[in-house]
Amino acid sequence: MKRSFFYILLLGLFVPTACVDLDFDEPPPGGEPIDISANATIQALKAWYVPGAFTEITDELIIRGIVIADDESGNFYKTIIIQDETAGIEVKLNSVGLFNDYPIGREVFIRCRGLVISDYNGLVQLGGGTYDDAGQTRLSGIEEVLLKNFIVAGKRDQFVTPKVKSIKDINTNDLSTLIQLNDVQFIQSDAGETYADPVTQFSVNHQIEDCAGNKILLRTSGYADFAGDVTPGGKGTLVAVASVFGSDLQLFIRNVNDVNMSDTRCGQVSVTPNGTIADLKAFYQSGSFTTITQDLIVGGIVTMDDQSGNYYKTIVIQDATGGIEIKINDFDLFTSFGVGREVFLKCKDLVIADYFGLIQVGGNTYVDGSGNTRLGGIEPANVGDHVIPGQSGQTVTPLVKTIDQLSLSDVSKLVRLQGVQFTDADAGKTYADAVGKFSVNLNLEDCDANALPLRTSGYADFAGQSSPNGNGIITAVLAIYNGDLQLFIRNPQDVSMSGTRCDGGTGGGDIDENFETVGNNADVSLAGWLNVATKGNRLWRGKTFSGNTYVQATAYNDTQTEMETWLISPAIDLSVAKKLSFLSSVAFWVHDGGSVLISTNFNGTNVGAATWNSLAAQLPTSSTTNYDWVNSGEVDLSSYSGTGYIAFKYTGSGPGGQTTTFIIDDVVVQDK
After folding, report:
1. What is each CA distance from 434 to 309, 456, 589, in whole angstroms?
2. Top-tier CATH class for 399-505
């Protein structure tokens, strides 16, 4: 028996190892061995993209990328997104359960010849062909049976490090790439809500904001397995894939692990004011630099920041008792202390003084090149000890007064003057010297001959813009210099002067329209403007993106076979030579659908009965990048007389037809 056992044991030791293949039933840890390499980047592939077209790849392009999003959670459907060192792209695959073969972190190679590149509402995609969807041509996914002909799966666990971005810096170059936002949160009304609607399975947009109040959309599919999960109420980090829909940048997460928000929300501070700005200003002694020794804490709302460049290293805050300038020795203060931000100022050890009569708070003193002692700003290292940001989105109601009613008690307050205009000598001049960077005073007046200067820095980003020629409203912060009151605006939107001047003339300020009062996705309805559809039923609509509102017309997804819509200005007095300027842009170019015209016999209602002449304005072309602004240049209207009307006309057609989006903004008509 012992011999038999030993013999069997020896036989076992000499069994060929090739028969034991269990270790090879699973792929090697790094993935299947492959014999393929890339000869093009994703960025090179995307160069084949033609807006609005379906372009078949005819070259032997092979791209390589890492999967950064798959369909495991259900937030992406029949889609993977891959990224390399140059760009990312969405790949449509007509199959489900893609995460089994192409999970996040998997290297993939795609043979692109025979595939088709197009876009869905601005997001570039790669697919297998096209199909008809109720008259609309759509990009189809690569068919399941063909996947292995085009896609080779490589190594696993090749993860992409998200690019750290701020909300305001996200742009079209980031589309279909993985980004990370730090110190962000769901806006208060979206915190504690489900990511989407798991019952109806409707997708939902929530807004993400940073502590400066910048916002971006986070979109979640109702089919995501986390649709019923509740959004966090804190602040923290968000990892997501950047996307776009039309003009709206938006984000998609892969799963809830991409969201880590457990810190204290922006603006939730444990600081409690124990005094007012009036109490702070009581420490001021004329001609002195006074260090505050008491534990005084005041709160206020920022009414002026440095975003436009009209103020430098300074913000202004205001409470119910008054306003005061705070000097901070740093740049881009608006990112933390922008207009509308609540601010708590811990005043102990700060210094209060004045600059030619304007009371300011700073961090120290210094001696300038002329030997004068000046108030210095709070140093960046000390800002957190003294200036604490609170809630964003707060408002201060401007103090409505006339020029002659303004007094020293209003200095550093937000004020609004009505029925004012720039003097004849200053109307139509640039706000400041944008070339020499010199500050300029332009004089304002009311119809009772009261006057007040508006001062603008040569470093303001609007220094080269012209002041309007009409009569109207200005909102500004009141300041003082050597006993003389003066105003500072935050940006040109603080000035709205398109009414009749005090002498009864138009003064050339016939139109100064930035469309900021038009609602997002609302049909344009402005006093004096006519918005009319002569074919179909679509009108010009307002659209807000990144804080700017413009108006646009588009036949995209229109069910009508023809579309023609007109946006016509108020009447313009052409007895004085005029000039027109505006900004325009396009998106998803398919056809040349926008034009600008003028009529001098339009009766105000019947578009077809009037004679319309084309104006020689610079407009976008097929080579214009989506949403890039094109300046019209100075359009000369001096050859026209009588009463004129400017028309922005859009023509397009319905399903699958001429669907370019045409956009306009900042329409100005003034004296030539």
Report:
1. 12, 10, 34
2. mainly beta
